[in-house]
Design goal:
With 431 residues, the chain is an alpha/beta fold. It folds into two domains: 28-87 and 377-414, Urease, subunit C, domain 1, CATH 2.30.40; 88-182 and 230-375, Metal-dependent hydrolases (TIM Barrel, Alpha-Beta Barrel), CATH 3.20.20.140. Helix content is 31%, strand content 23%. The chain contains 13 helices and 16 strands. The strands form two sheets. Strands 1, 2, 3, 4, 5, 14, 15 and 16 form an eight-stranded mixed sheet that branches. An eight-stranded mixed sheet has the order 6-7-8-9-10-11-12-13, with helices on both faces. A hairpin with a 5-residue loop joins β1 (34-42) and β2 (48-57). The longest helix has 26 residues, at 199-224.
């Protein structure tokens, strides 16, 4: 009985923790014209403007430059040398789809079944997730919400991280379908999945990949029919993929897996993006030739092969840049996203350069996600997604976000962790 009581107590405590919300709510629409002056502007396209001025009105940037005139009777912030950046973009995350990994009831990222092109991640996005505010305080203002599970998991959508509900948060809906290729590698762990099966594992993986190709061939034939006797919702969900209004994001790591990904581009004409791409540096010339972009995931990790340099994941972005491959830097999961800019900072230290590293989490990410016409850089006409930091946003030691704006709205940088910090400072009389 005691054990049952303790189990129920832990469940209730976890439930209350999930429901508990800090007093942070979305900001109202921008009403007054705002200018930021005396700032170092990092435009996100490689350009840096010292002692710059940036202005925005009704959510759009209206002025950027070293000597941009500031109209009278408006709100002006004198930043006194602080740094201004475009809002950081997380290109691959289940943020808002998972709240507590160990609690199944808070996991909406995965659907049952192998082929689920009609699943839309956006409708499960939880704007009340407490994790969201921990990202905003580090400068992440946009995120691509990605479904998981099976071979063909469904469509992702870009959200802005300051909304009352998923309709509010939606920034670009259904920008691509996601495929998770099975690993074409025999596990060396004698106790791991597939241990002792050898070539049977590879054969099973190749069979599943062929099943996916057959699905797309049938979908192509279905969409070519002028009239249908019955509507097939799964095939209909691929229509925008064949018209290139959506991209095909293929999650894979090894060279042979990425070469299979290029086959989807060749056979079906899909606009393919590789997600993960740990070994992409080995075939960078092929990816450049075929115009395939890469979302490099989790640079703060060990290489896949024991023969690779231990710092290979740090060097990969610079190698892709040198080869002319369009890439951005991502991170896996949801709570890990708060370190995204520091991953980019590591790449900057390993040959990429500071402004190119910033581009890899702003403008390049926007291009890959199909939102570069409205965000990703500080340019006139784009959305005012802006972050202000006292120091280098890519440096863990100096990153200190003082202000953030999403579509011109100055958002709160408070979160539950900050509130707990202040609570216990008060309790123990710490000043």
């Amino acid at each position: 009985m005691k054990k049952i009581f303790l189990a129920i107590s832990f469940l209730l405590a976890g439930y209350n923790m999930v429901l508990a919300q800090e007093t942070v709510y979305p900001a109202p629409a921008q009403t007054s014209v705002i200018f930021l002056k005396n700032a170092t502007l990092h435009l996100g396209n490689g350009t840096v403007i010292e002692n710059g001025v940036i202005g925005f009105s009704q959510g759009k940037i209206i002025a950027v430059g070293a000597n941009a005139p500031i109209p009278a009777a408006i709100k002006v912030y004198d930043l006194q040398g602080q740094h201004v950046y475009p809002g950081i973009i997380a290109p691959n995350t289940n943020l808002g789809l998972v709240e507590v990994e160990a609690v199944r009831a808070t996991d909406d990222a995965t659907e049952v079944g192998e082929l689920n092109p009609s699943v839309r991640a956006i409708v499960s996005y939880n704007t009340d997730s407490k994790v969201i505010n921990t990202l905003r305080v580090n400068g992440i203002l946009l995120a691509n919400i990605v479904p998981e599970g099976g071979l063909l998991s469904g469509s992702s959508s870009v959200v802005q991280l300051d909304g009352w509900n998923w309709e509010d948060a939606a920034y670009k809906t259904d920008n691509g379908l996601h495929v998770y290729l099975p690993r074409l590698l025999v596990r060396s762990n004698p106790f791991g999945p597939g241990a002792g099966l050898g070539n049977d594992v590879i054969k099973s993986s190749l069979d599943r990949i062929e099943k996916l190709k057959v699905f797309f061939r049938e979908a192509k034939a279905y969409l070519a029919e002028p009239k249908h006797t019955a509507t097939n919702l799964k095939f209909e969900s691929t229509r925008r993929l064949f018209s290139k209004d959506e991209k095909l994001f293929i999650h894979c790591e090894l060279v042979k897996e990425m070469l299979i990904a290029t086959q989807f581009a060749d056979e079906f004409g899909f606009d393919v993006v590789i997600v993960g791409g740990t070994d992409a540096w080995q075939i960078a010339d092929i990816l450049h030739q075929k115009n395939i972009a890469v979302i490099v995931n989790q640079p703060h990790s060990l290489p896949l092969s024991q023969d690779d340099d231990v710092d290979q994941p740090y060097k990969t972005p610079a190698q892709l840049q040198k080869a002319g491959v369009l890439f951005c830097i991502g991170n896996e999961g949801f709570w890990q996203q708060r370190n995204l800019m520091f991953n980019a900072g590591t790449a900057a230290a390993y040959g990429l350069g500071k402004e190119e590293a910033l581009r890899a989490i702003t403008l390049n990410a926007a291009k890959i996600l199909g939102i570069d016409k409205v965000t990703g850089s500080l340019e006139v006409g784009k959305d005012a997604n802006i972050v202000v930091s006292t120091g280098d946003i890519l440096d863990m030691r100096t990153n200190n976000i003082t202000q953030a704006f999403i579509q011109g709205r100055e958002i709160s940088l408070d979160n539950k962790q900050k509130q707990l910090y202040e609570r216990y400072k008060y309790k123990y009389g710490i000043k």
